[in-house]
Amino acid sequence: MSLSRKQVLELAKILHSTTKSLGQSSKLSTHQEKLSHLLGYRHWNAASAGLPETIPEETAAAIALLEVPGQTPMTFLEHGRAAPWKMPLVVRDYLIAQSLDPDGFGVTSYTRPTPVLAQKPRFLTIGFSRAVGEYTEHRELLDPNDISYCHQNHTPIMVTFADHTGRFSFKLTLWLVTFSALSDSPIYFNGASHKPMYNSIVETITGIEPFNRKGYCLVNSDDARNPHALIKCDEQGREIEHIRNLPLLSESELWTELKAYNELLNLSLTDAAEITQSTVYKYSEYAGGETFD
User: Fold this and answer.
1) Which of 2, 132, 169, 243 is the most exposed place for a label (fewest CB within 10 A)?
2) 3-class DSSP assignment, residue 178
3) 190-200 tens-digit pLDDT
């Protein structure tokens, strides 16, 4: 089943906003035309007329930009529920067809980078109902260094690969998006709990499954005088090391402390959120709380 017209518009908006946030020039109309061509239409007007307005089921979309030195950059689009899992194989098959077999290649960088442009303030939104039919939302301003575990951030994955000699070989940028049934509001596709997207992407392209990524997160401690614990964990929710308990600090001080540790691993806030969310959710379940932003 094809994407809907509204979904293609949302994808174009995501490409436009994230490209700009990373400091590159961008025009919304350019992305609309590019997506139209990838879907087999001559231009956006034809796509707009030919695509269904909505589709009645959950679907996903994966967009890849492949940059190989000396070659014209290539853009690929896959859609359907399995699209995020299929895209790395599409990229691998294309590379092999270009006589660039990535078997055994290494990953020199994998990140969802920090935007270079100033971002709008972020808020934690909490909804509650005091009576039947009554719904109220409360918004709380988040600290700039607060790790957000929501799925509204569409910053792409950017991966660079090196050949067997360690020389740069190619760069891959991936946008992974899910659309729920009967809704055109996109969320970031976060992969499966049993295998992080990082592992899946790298193994599919290189044939080698990497070690799990590691990061630092904050959880509740059992020490009343030092209520927060700083721990190191991996992307599948395994605690690796208890670093130390932290005293009662302000929100800003806590997030600044955590950011300093994750920066030692060259992790952006979004990287840290992806890597640590399984561990944070696990501790939250033990405590009977929630961590969703």
Assistant:
1) 132
2) strand
3) 876 678 999 99
Rounded CA-CA distance 45/41 in Å is 9
> In this structure, what token pair is assigned to residue 232?
């190191």
Tokens of 39: 């879907």
Question: What phi, psi does 95 have (nearest 5°)?
Answer: -60, -45
Token duo for residue 258: 């955590």
- 82, 32 Cβ separation under 8 angstroms: no
Residue 230 sits at φ, ψ, to 5 deg, of -100, 120
* Sequence letter at residue 190: N
Tell me the whole-structure pTM to 2 decimals: 0.89
Angle between helices 28-38 and 5-21 (to 10 degrees): 130
Q: Minimal CA–CA distance to 228: which of 220, 240, 236?
A: 220
pLDDT digits (tens, 9 = 90+) for 144-160: 787 877 778 899 999 99
Query: In angstroms, rounded to a whole number, what is the distance separating the alpha carbons of residues 204 and 166?
Result: 19
